[in-house]
């Protein structure tokens, strides 16, 4: 997804503690309920920022809303990359999302704004917002508090077209996974098979899950081979191959310890704004 120009939402980080104070589409504070317009008020009037207000208005004007004043809005998990849901947003919904940092949409059936989680409390906490190159669709990149789908599934996308064509039953827990999470799912299945009375076919993953010493020795071995691709100036394809081995064995260890890859990625994301040197110092001081 491409985002360009100074008006991009990326360049407009808003503190979760502060709220924008502006009127959308010229609505006044007195009539915003009647005309479905929102005014964002902070606890302190001193938080009012006319420069930011102007930038937000410019941004909203730059979106290519359709003839009904809407644009497709997609919510995506910031750590796993999973597509959580798709809805529609209008100016007010996008402005509300920027202000509240909660994914907010426009309900066409109710002709009203709605914030995902306002009933279930499974909010999607927005970390960033992206517009596509044509500026007619939006991504809310965020962290969900719980299942997104009303069925209780992690995302609304759990129906594989190819499973349907094969007349296979749709499973609510089969999600549209990226490569890393497909691997995590497979490891989880192998672990479940070991706990079953009939543990299925033998596999290398099962052997590693049953032998922690073997698993740790393989992680050390693969890590060493990865380092040697640098020390011995091997081809980058070799580096990619060795890294795949490290990732696979490390993922098995995570599965054995009941640690989700998402938990690891969340920690990495939270370190983005912190110097690696300072982060290491803080860890040492805690020990």
Automatic annotation (TrEMBL):
This is Histidine biosynthesis bifunctional protein hisIE chloroplastic. The lineage of its organism: Eukaryota, Viridiplantae, Streptophyta, Embryophyta, Tracheophyta.
């Amino acid at each position: 997804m491409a985002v360009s120009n100074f008006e991009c939402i990326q360049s407009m980080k808003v503190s979760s503690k502060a709220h924008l104070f502006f009127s959308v589409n010229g609505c006044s504070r007195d009539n915003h309920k009647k005309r479905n317009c929102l005014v964002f008020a902070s606890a302190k009037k001193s938080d009012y920022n006319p420069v930011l207000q102007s930038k937000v208005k410019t941004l909203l004007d730059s979106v290519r809303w359709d003839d009904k004043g809407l644009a497709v809005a997609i919510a995506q998990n910031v750590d796993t990359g999973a597509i959580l849901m798709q809805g529609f947003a209008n100016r007010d919904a996008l402005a509300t999302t920027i202000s509240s940092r909660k994914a907010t949409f426009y309900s066409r059936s109710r002709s009203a704004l709605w914030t995902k989680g306002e009933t279930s409390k499974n909010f999607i906490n927005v970390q960033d917002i992206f517009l596509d190159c044509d500026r007619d669709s939006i991504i809310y990149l965020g962290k969900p508090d719980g299942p997104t789908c009303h069925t209780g599934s992690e995302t609304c996308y759990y129906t594989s077209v190819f499973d349907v064509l094969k007349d296979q039953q749709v499973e609510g827990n089969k999600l549209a996974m990226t490569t890393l999470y497909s691997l995590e799912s497979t490891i989880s299945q192998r672990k479940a098979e070991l706990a079953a009375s009939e543990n299925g076919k033998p596999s290398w993953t099962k052997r590693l899950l049953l032998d922690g010493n073997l698993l740790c020795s393989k992680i050390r071995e693969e890590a060493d081979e990865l380092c040697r691709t640098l020390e011995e100036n091997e081809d980058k394809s070799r580096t990619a191959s060795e890294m795949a081995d490290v990732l696979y064995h490390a993922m098995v260890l995570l599965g054995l310890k009941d640690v989700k890859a998402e938990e690891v990625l969340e920690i990495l994301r939270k370190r983005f704004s912190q110097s690696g040197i300072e982060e290491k110092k803080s860890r040492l001081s805690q020990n």
